[in-house]
Amino acid sequence: MKYIKELFQNTYEEKKSKFVAYLMPYDNFDKTMQELRQEHPKARHFVYAYRHLNEFEQIVENCSDDGEPKGTSGKPSLTVLAGNDLINTAVIIVRYFGGVKLGTGGLVRAYSASINDVINISELFEYKKLEQARLKCEYSELSKLEYLLKQENITIVKKDFSNEIIVNIELSQEELEQLKIQLPRNIILL
């Protein structure tokens, strides 16, 4: 599975109709939809589709045709997201009608093409389930630990300097196993 970390945009044209596709992280969906409705007051349709993981690691999907003929825009958009194995990702397609009717097949092709085009210009990342872990170290070892974590692209969530130094990190199970091998003896995994 793959996901994106930032917003990507691309415009596709078909018979004078414009399809402006916005691909974004799922967490930004509601806010982006509000902004786009204000930014594009003359647009005819705001079609969307999204796929995300819930707290039980199940895929939740939803889509909307937003006034287009049933099944010609939202469902094909969702199919493109699923076909590209995207997760925690949403797409909103803003359509400006160009005066020429595309027909149901034409709409399906146009929406699918607009989403494929924006996916092609996007930077995709491999999804991995993240877990929390805690490391305990002496102050003199902190810079070594931070360097090691940075080299391994492991995110430091929080550092606690109360009695002893506790570093909270977020990483995948595979990264945790690899980190255990690399940790010096005086840095303890809690």
TrEMBL record:
<dbReference type="InterPro" id="IPR036956">
    <property type="entry name" value="Impact_N_sf"/>
</dbReference>
<feature type="domain" description="UPF0029">
    <location>
        <begin position="135"/>
        <end position="183"/>
    </location>
</feature>
<dbReference type="GO" id="GO:0005737">
    <property type="term" value="C:cytoplasm"/>
</dbReference>
<dbReference type="GO" id="GO:0006446">
    <property type="term" value="P:regulation of translational initiation"/>
</dbReference>
<dbReference type="InterPro" id="IPR015269">
    <property type="entry name" value="UPF0029_Impact_C"/>
</dbReference>
<dbReference type="InterPro" id="IPR035647">
    <property type="entry name" value="EFG_III/V"/>
</dbReference>
<dbReference type="InterPro" id="IPR001498">
    <property type="entry name" value="Impact_N"/>
</dbReference>
<feature type="domain" description="Impact N-terminal">
    <location>
        <begin position="15"/>
        <end position="119"/>
    </location>
</feature>
<protein>
    <submittedName>
        <fullName>YigZ family protein</fullName>
    </submittedName>
</protein>
<dbReference type="InterPro" id="IPR023582">
    <property type="entry name" value="Impact"/>
</dbReference>
<dbReference type="Pfam" id="PF01205">
    <property type="entry name" value="Impact_N"/>
</dbReference>
<dbReference type="Pfam" id="PF09186">
    <property type="entry name" value="DUF1949"/>
</dbReference>
<dbReference type="InterPro" id="IPR020568">
    <property type="entry name" value="Ribosomal_Su5_D2-typ_SF"/>
</dbReference>
<comment type="similarity">
    <text>Belongs to the IMPACT family.</text>
</comment>
<dbReference type="InterPro" id="IPR015796">
    <property type="entry name" value="Impact_YigZ-like"/>
</dbReference>
